[in-house]
Each structure stands twice: as structure tokens, then as C-alpha cells.
Amino acid sequence: MPYQPRADLSQDFTGSRSLSMTHPTPSGRRTFRLTAGTIDDEARTFFGHGFCLFLSGAIYSLVNVDICTVYVRRPGEGHFRPVHSGVITPDGRFLDIFGHRTTDTIKAAYREAFGGDVYLRTVDGQYYHAEVTDVDEDSCDTRWWQEEFDTPAKQAVLLHFARLLLHKSGYGDRIPLMARPELRARTPQKPVARKPCPRPAAPTRKETGMSIPEDVARLNALAGSIPLGQLQQLSEAELPPELLDARRALSESGDARSILGGTQEAAEADNALSHAVAKLDQATEVYQMFKSHLTEAFQAAARAKQHIEQAAGYHGRGL
User: Fold this and answer.
1) How far apart are alpha carbons 252 and 238 in whole angstroms?
2) Is 35 domain-assigned?
């Protein structure tokens, strides 16, 4: 998505505010009017049947808890599909706009509502957007929820309700000070007067305090200190074969449902295996990205060494 400045986590709102969203809810609604401090039908519809994943992402950004997605499979359906998201609080319970409940209660509620199998999938918040929504995004961006909540007005509402749920569930004290609007309001930031920083004049040959041979020696020492050999070895390193072997072994480990049948345990086992394979694939991608960065570092260091050596040559000739 296009670059956006990282949202100020202390944003807040009072009274009521109307929001017009880019994407509609499953029922087709785009416009909602939400009231600060109030979890009414409008808030439950907005955050419970449309934008639950973004509320979960905001809570994660505030207190670093795992995000949990509810998957269901109706009778006759072959695959599970995600229907709702919340977060897992430190006591192991599921927190969303509807309350703070045990995971067993969540499973039972969705099993009754959909009449089929239910399982919960917990994901680290920073990877949630890429894994659960299957989008090609920066998988380590903890503010991915800004894609939909892309204005300060929308962000203020989202963060307000994220903090509200944390306070109601007893975890409000975990919200960092920089994300608490009441503290920001109490201690306003004073603008800092910046003094102009005059650009120093370029030193002449007499002002360096060194002779030309000393300058050249220092430049050569600097060039020699650049570890090009080590950087080249790192950039040429191959992916560990053990990682590929583990990925292959997991992929060929079989289907638990062929042994246990269509039970919840079998579904969770197969999902855990799929999750492990996905994590190994992600590790492979990260390794390749890491290797790419190392290659760029090696190339940049080589250019730096070349420029320094050229400068030493020019300096030695008095140019």
C-alpha cells in the first residue's frame, strides 16, 4: 500500500463521529456513527461484523498481544473460512467488541451459529495481515491497520475503542504512556526552537593540522578496515539445507484427517502443520531478503573502499 506516516497511538475522539469507510461490511454498509465510550449496536456491527481485524490490529499495536481468528466450516463445505477476529489476552481469553470470553465459549457460540466445525488460529500480530488476509504486504509492519483506517479521524475512533476494550477487560494499565491521550493532554508538547546550524567552511590544506603523507596513511587505513572479504562471504552464503529438508518433511507428513476423520482435533492438527509449513516458507523469504541486503551492503562497502582509495591517490598527488 502507499506509504503513510505511522499513526499517533494517542489519538482520541469525544462525542459522536460519523465514519465513511472505503470498503463495505459483508452486509454492504459503509457509513457508521460511533459514540465515544459506548459499545452499542452500531459499534458491535462496525467492529463485530466488518472491521474486527483492524480493531484487533490496533489492540496489538497498543499492548502486543496475539491475534486470534475464528474459522468455521459449515456442514457440506470442504474448507474452513475465517469469520471473525479478536485478540488473546494474557489470561488466555478472547477479547473483541462483544466482550472478554474464554476460547471454549467462542468455539461453542460459533459452532451453534454456523452448525459446523470451528477452530481458532492464533497469529503473531505483526504477521497477521499477510497471513490471514493473504495480501502482499510488508509482513513485519505492525501498523497494517492503517490501510483501511487511513485518516486521523478514523484512527482516533479505532484507537479509542481499542483502549476502551482493554480498560473493560482489566488490561488498561498495560497501555504505554505514549498511547494514553489523557497523559498527552496533560503534558502538551512544547515546540522546541531550533537554532540555525551554520555550515562550517571547508578547511584549507593548512587548517587540517596534518601533513599530506599522514592524510594518505589515514585514508589507506580506513580503506583497509572495510571487511570486504567477510561481507562477500555472507552475501554468497546459501540457504541452509536443513531448512529445506524440514519444509519437505512437513509437507510430506500426511493428512491427520485421513487418520482421525473430520474431527476438530484433526482439523487443528492439519492447520498447525500448514502453519508450520507457512512459517518455514516465510523464513525462506526472510533469508532471501536478508541475503539481498547483505549483497547490497557488500556492493556499497566496495564502492566506499574504491572512493576512499581514489581520494588517497588524489590527495597523495596534491590534487
Assistant:
1) 24
2) yes
224 with 158, same domain: the answer is no
> DSSP 3-state assignment of 229?
helix
Distance CA(217)–CA(204), nearest Å, equals 19
CB-based burial label for 234 (10 Å; 0-12, 13-18, 19+): middle
Q: How far is CA 145 from CA 4, 85, 148, 200, in A?
A: 11, 13, 6, 45
Reported as a pLDDT band with limits 50, 70 and 90, residue 100 is very high
pTM recorded for the entire structure: 0.56
The confidence score (pLDDT) of residue 187 equals 47
- Cα–Cα distance, 8 to 145 (Å, whole number): 13
Question: Which SS3 state, helix, strand or coil, does residue 19 take?
Answer: strand
Sequence-separated (6 or more) residues with CB below 8 Å from residue 147? 1, 129, 137
Average pLDDT of the chain is 77
Highest mean pLDDT among 116-120, 164-168, 183-187, 271-275: 164-168
As for how many domains the chain has, the answer is 2
Sign of the CA dihedral running 221, 224, 230, 234? positive
Let me know if residue 97 belongs to a domain: yes
- State whether the Cα torsion 291-296-298-299 is positive or negative: positive
- Please say whether the beta carbons of 223 and 309 come within 8 A: yes
In this prediction, residue 255 carries a pLDDT of 62
Going by pLDDT thresholds of 50, 70 and 90, the confidence category of residue 42 is very high
Whether 83 and 211 share a structural domain: no
Question: Which structural domain, as residue segments, surrounds residue 225?
Answer: 207-316
Do 222 and 160 belong to one domain?
no
